[in-house]
Write a structure and sequence with these properties.
single chain, alpha/beta, 18% strand
Length: 117
Amino acid sequence: YSIILLDYKKEYNEFKKLAKLFTSNNIMQVAALIEKSDYVFTTDTGIVHIADVYSKPMTVLYSDVFKEGEEPRNDSYIAEWKSINPKTKMLRDKYNVNNINLNSIFDILDKELLKNE
């Protein structure tokens, strides 16, 4: 597989040997890259919306807006969002995406990537 990491802030320097890094100058470059991709894996809601436009299969890691120990609120300004794409797999945690089990991520990616072989 060819893997490209979107590198907005040079955050992924340690992955240079594992993947190609793409430093984005604008959102149109990111959209063009997503349009040509076979699969998207992201934690960024903006990327989800772009991938939805192109109906790309994707896995999204998502956490709610609550702080650890805080109970969920029903405030009207907190909106539930989701991908409109039926090919989207979403893994959620109430507090932090870092709490999402790695085996869950690997299981989804294994199944999804096998579809593209």
